[in-house]
From TrEMBL, chain B:
CDD domains: ABC_MJ0796_LolCDE_FtsE. Keywords: ATP-binding, Nucleotide-binding, Transport. Gene3D superfamilies: P-loop containing nucleotide triphosphate hydrolases (3.40.50.300). The keyword Acyltransferase does not apply. This is ABC transporter ATP-binding protein. GO terms for molecular function: ATP binding; ATP hydrolysis activity; transmembrane transporter activity. Residues 7-226 form the ABC transporter domain. GO terms for cellular component: plasma membrane.
From TrEMBL, chain C:
It is found in: Cell membrane. Keywords: Cell membrane, Membrane, Transmembrane, Transmembrane helix. This is Membrane protein. It is a multi-pass membrane protein. The chain crosses the membrane at residues 24-47, 59-82, 189-213, 245-267, 287-308, 329-347, 359-380, 636-656, 691-714, 721-747. Pfam families: FtsX (PF02687). GO terms for cellular component: plasma membrane.
Length: 181, 227, 758
């Protein structure tokens, strides 16, 4: 599941990292691994497949090719279409569900890196979470005991997410200082 | 959310001594809706609620209830408004320890000069409705926290107010009792058509609301803002 | 165990700012009470040192008449009064070089010299000085009487030197002071009064001290709860509380001592009951000091432990024990019943005769009053339990009292004792006062009487008086009692004077020197007068010297408008009876004043004394009210007001504490829309209800006590409703004051800020 999420957002993550300036594919992998990879570094194949997809969609362009061989000599830069794409992605709340934190975390770090208002991102996300919690609360009120128990399970997990969102928004300043250093 | 709102707060500022509590908070409440006010502790949630309810007069900004400006009213008029149109549920320490539960619930009616017998009859009905009819004759010190909080809800609703202000109503309760209080509060409010302004930091409690407003550093966040 | 007490002691002084203020508060409260106790303990000693100085300077000689010698002095009292204050005046004449000197003097004044008290010196230096100065006969003030020669700093006294004083009108002394102090104890009635006054004033002070010990007590209890949480058991907390209270009480003792010393310095400035005292006189009796020093901390600890009994100090907080234990009635009734049983036998009319009876009466009174205190909580409970619901303010107050009436009952007990005692004492005073009030003088004829002894200068004296500013008229004659030789005790007066003087007493018709008149008033029933005939014989004066009424004596009617009411008398002109041959040569001069001149009396006193230091001037007054009782009554009211203020202040502290503790609740009630008026009323009712019960009880007990005291004093029982009204009114005023003073705090605490969580 985590891999799926990753593949869905890896392109936007690269775009976000490229917003601060053109980079080599190798740099991108290194930075990504440092910030988001935890103990699981990206494969080179994944990196270049994603970059070529972005290139094809016109979201990045080649900034220049250094002399020598191999794909690692190419430098990529983000296009204005790419910047718009990152903004749209960051502004769209994730569908509330368990184990979101990796995507959310990535988004927050990128928002901080690219100078976008991370607090708004969190608010939009918590509004989305609450919308779902309201619906579950309503279903719970109308449903039988089994339904109530199932809804409660989901509610408690969503609440945990929401608490994490609260906590993160309280620590945004710390995070920005850490990320930008 | 159609028509004009029942209660509107615009650009409220309020400081307690040198400490600012509200720095530009705005909010509208429509009749019959449940609004959750959320935010970290110290963000000004309670102060916002106190301003909305006319308990505290903001340093600047306006609070309008039903077309009337609250901050311009004399204290007696605001008290009368709170007595007749508003209901209150707080986290704790809200029941008068010397009075029995039914006397506590009857208190707002008694303040409105409803005869004692009639007031206590209506109070007893509300206690039944909130499933605490059996503690009517006991003193608050002799009932459990959840029961006490439901007694408080009964007191908030006994005057069939237009707005119920609830400040962390489940703050001192475990989740099961908290849910029960919220279920009974929102259900009764919807039945009587009262709006509920709910201050809470618990997402699951906020789940009982129709929409939420986040207060951070004394300001309300407008969640409709586009990117 | 000791370490826990010490721990508590440390809490008292090292509990942070909050702890300090609490301790300080208690210490000041206890201090005020202790200071008053010390003052009360000083009263007997102060009166005693006064009495001792009085004995030491007394010009008293018992036994054989002393012969004049080098070591003797002649001394005579100069009887005079300035305004309403009696003056201790003496005429002295040393008969030799070794003549004794009275205390406070360096040497006896010689003729033309005077030694005066500081108060008299101040009077002479004041603008009023000229009104008094002539009484010293123009003598030069050569010295000031030292403290050891005066009863108090405010006393007017002088020693005037003389070289003409003869032994006939003076006492010869070889030393000053009564050799054997004729110790006259207070009369039994006065002892009883003093004991009751002490009980009435001291019981409330004790109550006040008890209340002061609990200042801030609820917070202290909460700290004990925190100690329970970290593992202290109930006994330990009790010991810690004991240590803490003891420290506060000891600080209070120290504060009380300081307050007492400070207050003592002010004593010389006060004159009460015509008595002024030196600061040094106000010395508490040592055994009483020891008793106070031991009893006050003990009381403090006991009160605190008793209060802790009513609450459960648990690790998670302090809770009131659910339902307060039902109060038992029997022992509460036992106290006043025993008291009445002690008083009853004396109320039969036997009066207070012997010493044991005084103590019995005192003990009975104390028991009755203490019984009132004990009965009060039970009665308040009884009343409050039965009270129904009324308006919101009333309901809040009643319900609160139903849960806890003990605190207010304790304080109201103090008020009840003060009021009950006042009523009882006032009734007694009123009755005794009535009895001691004598019929007033008839001031329409004359306003003062001047008497001289052993002098023959009546015409000159009359001329001097008539020439004194403010005097409208004066009529004077020699005066001597006359009786039939073998008659009974019935006497009439023989007046010797010029025709002009005699004409004031009777319609003489013709009168020439040598005439004699017999006056018989219309309503006279005098046997002597009816049997007396011209030519008859009468016995004059104390030694019964015979005198024959001249045969030419005429009977004349008494004058209706004379200087005295019409009476039977023999009027003789100097030609008929030479006043120089009369044994006592006593004169009586009736003086009328110009209306509206307040200084006329003082000028007359001066005129008379300047010529004759041993003359006496008596002012006539229409109503002779016992000054002493009036001032005792004023003093008692003053004491009661101070006592009630103390109690009101501790009630105020109690109310304020309770309000602060409930600030959240109050703010919530205001949020609900409760008008502040309702909250104010609830505070008022909460104080009024117990006080009302207290006052009803106090009036009942006070009247009962008064009746019993009157019976003991064998005085007709009359109820003084004025005393009842005043005393109850003062009690009620204390409540209103408390409530009024607590309102600002209520207003402040009901501001919405109270809703903010700490």
């Amino acid at each position: 599941m985590m891999c799926i999420v990753l593949s869905m957002s890896l392109g936007q993550t690269f775009l976000g990292l490229l917003e601060s300036g053109p980079r080599h594919g190798y740099d991108l992998k290194r930075t990504y691994d440092d910030r988001f990879g935890n103990a699981r570094p990206l494969h080179y194949g994944q990196v270049y497949a994603t970059l070529s997809r972005l290139l094809k969609d016109g979201l990045v362009e080649l900034d220049g090719v250094e002399p020598g061989e191999g794909p690692e000599r190419k430098r990529y830069a983000i296009t204005s279409a790419g910047v718009t794409d990152v903004g749209r992605w960051l502004g769209t709340p994730e569908k509330p569900e368990p184990y979101l934190q990796n995507t959310l975390y990535t988004k927050i770090v990128l928002a901080v890196l690219t100078g976008r208002p991370a607090a708004d991102l969190l608010d939009v996300q918590r509004a989305e979470h609450l919308r779902l919690m309201r619906e579950l609360t309503r279903r719970k009120a109308e449903g039988d005991l089994a339904e109530q128990l199932i809804c409660d399970h989901a509610l408690f997990h969503l609440e945990a997410d929401l608490r994490w969102l609260e906590l993160t928004s309280a620590r945004l300043d710390d995070l920005a200082a850490r990320v930008r250093s | 959310m159609t028509g004009s709102p029942l209660l509107v707060a615009a650009d409220l500022h309020k400081s307690y001594g040198p400490t600012p509590a509200l720095e530009g908070a705005s909010l509208a409440v429509w009749a019959g809706e449940v609004v959750a006010i959320m935010g970290p502790s110290g963000s000004g949630k309670s102060t916002l609620l106190h301003c909305l309810a006319g308990i505290v007069v903001p340093d600047s900004g306006q609070v309008r209830y039903d077309g009337r400006e609250l901050s311009g009213m004399p204290d007696a008029a605001r008290s009368a408004l709170r007595r007749t149109r508003f209901g209150f549920v707080f986290q704790f320490g809200q029941l008068v320890p010397e009075l029995t539960c039914v006397e506590n619930v009857a208190l707002p009616l008694r303040l409105e000069r409803v005869p004692r017998r009639e007031a206590e009859r209506r109070a007893a009905q509300w206690l039944d409705r909130l499933e605490v009819g059996d503690v009517a004759g006991k003193r608050p010190g002799e009932v459990s926290g959840g029961q006490g909080q439901r007694v408080a809800v009964a007191r908030a609703l006994v005057t069939t107010p237009q707005v119920v202000f609830a400040d962390e109503p489940t703050g001192a309760l475990d989740s099961l009792n908290g849910e029960r209080v919220m279920r009974l509060l929102t259900a009764a409010a919807r039945e009587t058509g009262a709006a509920v302004v709910l201050v809470t930091h618990e997402p699951r409690v906020a789940g009982y609301s129709d929409r939420e407003v986040v207060v951070r550093d004394g300001r309300t966040r407008d969640l409709e803002r586009t990117w | 165990m000791v370490s826990e007490v010490l721990l508590g002691a440390r809490f008292a002084v090292a509990g942070g700012r909050d702890g300090w203020t609490r301790t300080l508060f208690t210490a000041v409260g206890v201090g005020v009470g202790v200071a008053l106790l010390l003052l009360a303990a000083s009263v007997p000693g102060a009166l005693q040192s006064r009495e001792q100085r009085g004995q030491a300077r007394a010009g008293f000689h018992a036994g054989d008449v002393l012969p004049a010698g080098p070591g003797t002095v002649l001394i005579a009292s100069v009887v005079t009064t300035f305004r309403d204050q009696e003056v201790y005046g003496n005429l002295v004449r040393a008969e030799g070089p070794d003549a004794p000197v009275p205390p406070g003097l360096v040497a006896l004044p010689r003729a033309g010299e005077a030694v005066v008290s500081p108060a008299l010196r101040d009077l002479l230096d004041s603008p009023e000085g000229p009104l008094f100065a002539p009484r010293l006969g123009g003598a030069r003030v050569t010295g000031v009487i030292g403290d050891e020669g005066l009863l108090g700093p405010g006393e007017l006294a002088f020693y005037l030197g003389s070289d003409t004083l003869g032994s006939g009108r003076a006492v010869r002394l070889d030393r000053f002071g009564e050799p054997q102090p004729a110790h006259e104890p207070f009369g039994p009635m006065l002892t009883l009064l003093i004991v009751i006054i002490f009980v009435v004033l001291l019981l409330p002070i004790t109550v006040f001290i008890g209340a002061a010990v609990r200042f801030g007590g609820e917070r202290r209890d909460r700290r004990l709860a925190a100690l329970r949480l970290i593992g202290a058991d109930r006994r330990m907390t009790r010991r810690i509380a004991t240590g803490e209270t003891a420290v506060a009480a000891l600080l209070g003792l120290a504060a009380g001592g300081l307050l007492f010393l400070a207050g003592r310095a002010l004593v010389p400035l006060v004159t009460l009951w015509d008595i002024s005292l030196y600061a040094g006189d106000v010395r508490p009796w040592p055994p009483l000091v020891v008793a106070i020093a031991l009893a006050v901390p003990a009381l403090a600890v006991v009160v605190n432990l008793a209060a802790l009994r009513g609450v459960a100090v648990e690790p998670l907080g302090v809770t009131r024990r659910g339902v307060p234990p039902r109060r038992r009635i029997w022992w509460r009734l036992l106290l006043p019943a025993t008291g009445l049983a002690l008083l009853a036998p004396m109320a039969g009319g036997g009066g207070v005769a012997a010493a044991p009876a005084e103590y019995q009466a005192a003990a009975g009174t104390v028991l009755v009053l203490v019984g009132a205190v004990a009965l009060l909580p039970w009665l308040i409970d009884l009343l409050v339990r039965r009270l129904g619901a009324g308006p919101v303010g009333w309901q809040l107050a009643v319900r609160r009292l139903q849960l806890d009436s003990a605190t207010s009952a304790r304080l109201v007990g103090g008020i009840a004792v003060a009021v009950a005692g006042t009523i009882g004492l006032q009734m007694l005073f009123a009755a005794v006062e009535n009895r001691s009030r004598t019929a007033g003088d008839d001031v329409t004829r004359a306003q003062a009487i001047v008497r001289t002894f052993g002098r023959t200068d009546l015409p000159e004296s009359l001329a001097r008086l008539r020439g004194t500013p403010g005097v409208a008229g004066a009529v004077g004659t020699y005066e001597i009692a006359a009786a039939l030789p073998r008659g009974g005790p019935d006497r009439l007066q023989l007046l010797v004077g010029d025709c002009a003087e005699l004409a004031a007493f009777a319609d003489l018709g013709r009168c020439a020197d040598g005439d004699t008149f017999l006056v018989r008033s219309a309503e006279s029933g005098s046997v002597t007068a009816s049997q007396l005939r011209p030519g008859g014989r009468v016995a004059l004066g104390d030694d019964g010297r015979p005198w024959t009424v001249p045969t030419g004596a005429r009977r004349v009617p008494a004058r209706a408008q004379g200087p005295v009411a019409p009476r039977d008398a023999i009027l003789a002109t100097p030609g008929a009876l030479d006043p120089g041959t009369l044994p006592e040569r006593e004169t009586a001069t009736f003086v009328r004043f110009v209306p509206g001149d307040p200084d006329a009396l003082e000028r007359v006193r001066s005129t008379v004394l300047a010529a004759d230091p041993l003359a006496q001037v008596a002012a006539l007054t229409p109503v002779r009210e016992s000054n002493r009782f009036a001032s005792i009554r004023r003093g008692l009211y003053l004491g009661i007001v101070v006592t009630l203020l103390l109690i009101a202040s501790s009630m105020l502290v109690g109310v304020l504490e309770q309000l602060r503790e409930r600030r959240r609740l109050l703010a919530m009630l205001v949020a609900l829309g409760t008008p502040r008026r309702s909250l104010g009323l609830s505070v008022l009712w909460q104080t009024v209800l117990p006080v009302l019960v207290g006052l009803v009880l106090a009036v009942g007990f006070g009247l009962g006590l008064g009746v019993v005291l009157l019976r003991i004093a064998v005085v007709r029982v009359t109820i003084s409703w004025a005393a009842v009204g005043w005393s109850a009114g003062l009690g009620a005023a204390a409540v209103l004051l408390t409530t009024a003073l607590s309102l600002p705090a209520l207003w402040r605490l009901t501001r919405p800020d109270g809703l903010r969580t700490e």
